[in-house]
Each structure stands twice: as structure tokens, then as C-alpha cells.
Amino acid sequence: MAEPDTAQDTAEIATFGYERARDELVNVVKMLEQGGLDLDDSLALWERGEALANRCEEHLAGARQRVEEAISRSEAAEEA
Predict the structure, then answer these.
(1) Using CB atoms within 10 A as the burial measure, which of 4, 19, 24, 27 is most buried?
(2) Residues 6 or more apart in contact with residue 24 via CB below 8 angstroms
(3) Are 48 and 28 within 8 A, CB to CB?
(4) HSE on the CB side for 53, CA within 13 Å?
(5) Residues 6+ positions from 3 with CB-CB distance below 8 Å
(6) What is the pLDDT of residues 21-54, one digit of tens each?
(7) CA 45 to chain centre
(8) CA-to-CA separations, 47 to 24, 32, 59, 78, in angstroms, rounded
(9) Which pTM value belongs to this model?
């Protein structure tokens, strides 16, 4: 496995939608669980997995925020 360009990899992951990041994270976990990789490759995969997990969390936090705002607007409209 070639050593990835971390900055380029992170920039690429920042463009991923939730489903793509989640699916790639699942694949990274499977590869790590299978083992057989040398330490450098395992670390590179782990780092990619961390970046993918962070991207998923960003999407979930954004969705959570949107839901909370919608509930607040709904409650404010009911009170008016």
C-alpha cells in the first residue's frame, strides 16, 4: 500500500457526503480487522478511519442542529 498524502486525503474526505464517508469507514474497519498489513499501512488506514469518522460526526452534528432548529421554530409558531 502506498503512503497516502495526508493533506490531500483529508481534503478529499472533507468533500464526502455522510453515506460515502460511512461506507468507506466500514471498509477501513474491515481491512484493519482482517489484519495482515504492516504497521505503516495499518497506521495509514487508522488515520483515514479517524478522518472518515470525524466527517460522519460533522454530518450528524449538522443534522442534529437542523432538527433542533426545526423543533424550535415549530414550538415558537405554536406559542404565537
Answers:
(1) 24
(2) 16, 48, 52
(3) yes
(4) 9
(5) 40, 44
(6) 999 999 999 999 999 999 999 999 999 999 999 9
(7) 14
(8) 13, 11, 19, 47
(9) 0.81
